[in-house]
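lol forgot to send this yesterday, sorry. struct tokens for the thing we talked abt
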């Protein structure tokens, strides 16, 4: 029996209006993912979760069965326990640099004090695969990955059938990759079953340099602990430089609002029967709409006032397969299109 879970996260783009001392909020977007942590599918055999990666991970302490750190271009020189239980590791695609700025500092005997390393795989279709041992007892796995301008899909297959999957990734082109940890537990019905993990770049925002990275894999027979906060609900917040371009349909799959008018009831927004952004209030003087935000917002042309062409807001007129204000836009496409 497979189950699906949805993680909803919100993005708020804020910019300081020059010379006015005011704060502008050009975009509110609610999506199934932040940086993208999307819908997950799991089964009775495999369950898991994806989160932002921890600041530190002790691979040896958490990997009593086996662990691997992708810290070198030469696969034979990777650090690891060397027990052979994490096997058949295959990287396909455009293998790029060993990154040295993963969000996680990987700790194990003999590791450097500053050990933020992982193998980058550029472009669409880049893929990492590996095998795990079958076990009728529960086994615990952590997979550390990274993403820049991409959507990454992780799948766990038993006997060739997907039992767990998630999608995650950094959904803009601002500087710096983001790191994630997928933690899952599994068991098999037979010791003769096969267990395979696939990690693939499935979407890109930059066709040349969009990527995923594989950083480390950890296997144990006891639950792993990296000091992450567990719970049914979490709120994660991070300040980062606003990107030059934001796609409303991509970033606001559940809902979005563009605060582009001094008339509070005339904002462009997604037309949905189940809005996720509600009870919006602006406090203070709202008699001015800035025209020079750093981020160009891409929305349906049918939902826009006459096309603006200033370079600072290029992208306003890029068509998108979503709709905005019900009074101005056509019906939305069916889900999945």
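and heres what i got for the seq, position by position
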């Amino acid at each position: 029996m497979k189950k699906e879970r949805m993680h909803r996260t919100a993005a708020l783009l804020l910019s300081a209006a020059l010379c006015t001392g005011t704060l502008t909020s050009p975009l509110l977007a609610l999506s199934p993912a932040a940086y993208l942590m999307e819908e997950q599918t799991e089964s009775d055999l495999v369950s898991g979760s994806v989160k932002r990666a921890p600041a530190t991970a002790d691979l040896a302490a958490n990997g009593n069965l086996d662990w691997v750190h992708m810290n070198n271009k030469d696969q034979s020189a990777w650090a690891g326990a060397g027990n052979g239980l994490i096997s058949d590791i295959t990287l396909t695609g455009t293998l790029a640099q060993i990154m040295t700025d993963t969000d996680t500092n990987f700790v194990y005997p003999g590791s450097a004090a500053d050990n933020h390393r992982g193998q980058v795989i550029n472009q669409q279709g880049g893929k990492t695969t590996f095998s795990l041992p079958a076990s009728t007892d529960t086994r615990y796995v952590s997979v550390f990955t990274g993403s820049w301008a991409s959507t990454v899909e992780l799948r766990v297959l038993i006997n060739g059938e997907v039992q767990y999957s998630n999608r995650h990734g950094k959904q803009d082109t601002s500087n710096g990759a983001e790191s994630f940890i997928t933690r899952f537990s599994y068991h098999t019905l037979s010791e003769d079953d096969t267990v395979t993990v696939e990690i693939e770049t499935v979407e890109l925002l930059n066709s040349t340099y969009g990527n995923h990275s594989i950083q480390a894999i950890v296997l144990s027979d006891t639950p792993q602990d990296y000091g992450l906060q567990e719970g049914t609900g979490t709120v994660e917040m991070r300040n980062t430089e606003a990107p030059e371009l934001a796609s409303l349909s991509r970033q606001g799959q559940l809902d979005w609002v563009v605060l582009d008018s001094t008339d509070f009831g005339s904002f462009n927004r997604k037309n949905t029967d189940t809005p996720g952004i509600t009870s919006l209030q602006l406090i203070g003087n709202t008699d001015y709409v800035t025209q020079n935000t750093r981020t160009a917002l891409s929305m349906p042309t049918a939902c826009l006032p006459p096309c603006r062409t200033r370079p600072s807001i290029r992208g306003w007129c890029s068509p998108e397969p979503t709709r905005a204000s019900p009074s101005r836009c056509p019906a939305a496409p069916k889900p999945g299109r």
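The chain has two domains: 12-33+242-337, 35-220. anyway ping me if u want another try
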